Amino acid sequence: MPDTSKMAAKGLDFYYGRFKALQEINLDIPQNQVTALIGPSGCGKSTFLRCLNRMNDLIPGARVEGQVLLDGQDIYAPSLDVVELRRRVGMVFQKPNPFPKSVFENVAYGLRVGGVRDNAYISVQVEKSLRRAALFDEVRDRLHDSALGLSGGQQQRLCIARALAVEPEVLLMDEPASALDPIATQKIEELIHELKTGFTIIIVTHSMQQAARVSDRTAFFYMGKLVEDDATETIFTRPAQKQTEDYITGRFG
Known about the structure:
single chain; 10 helices; alpha/beta; 4-stranded antiparallel sheet; Rossmann fold
C-alpha cells in the first residue's frame, strides 16, 4: 500500500442478511485528497461509505468480510474502539440534521460527549470549527439561537462544523449538497476544496458535474462492484472501462 493512503479497502464484501451489497472492493484513499464515489442509485456507494466508519454496524444482519484500513490498522479488528474510530472518521449526511439546540451547542456536542469539560477550550474549538466551515461570520451574533432557524445551506455547514469540532482525520460526506439550492451547493463545494488541506475527504455524489469539480480521484461503482478508480480527470476523459464511459456519457444510470 502506498504511503499516501489514509484509508484502504482490501477484498471488502458487505452483506445485508443474505444479500451481498458489495463484492471484493479494493480501493486506496489518498491522504489530503477528495475521493468521489459515483454510480447509479443502489450501486453500493453509500453502503461502502458507511463501511468506512462502521456506521453499518447499527443495521441488524449486516456483515463485513475483508478489511478496511485506517493508517494501516484494520478498523474491523475486535480490539478496535468504535467510538474513537468515529471521532477520527467523521460523517456528514445527505440532509442537514442539526440538533434542536443552539448553534454553539450543536458544534460543542461532540466535545461534551467526548468528556471535554474545559469551557474555554470548547469555545475556541466552536469558533475554529465554524470558521473552518465558512459559517462563523454568518452566525457570530446568533450562536445562542436555535440552529433550526438557519437556512438549509447554513444547517449543512453547521453539521460540517459539528463534525470538524472533534478534529477528525477523515470526513465522509453522503451527498452533502443534494438537498440544497445551487448557491448553497457552491458554498459547500468551495468548502470541500478548502478542507482537503487538513482532512482526507470521501464524498458520495449523484452529480457527475460535482464529482468533476470537487474531487482529485473518482471511483465508479456499479451493482455492488468497483468498476474502476483513477484520477478524476482520467475517469471523465479517458476511462479504462466501457461501463464507466457509458455511465459518464449518460447512456445508462
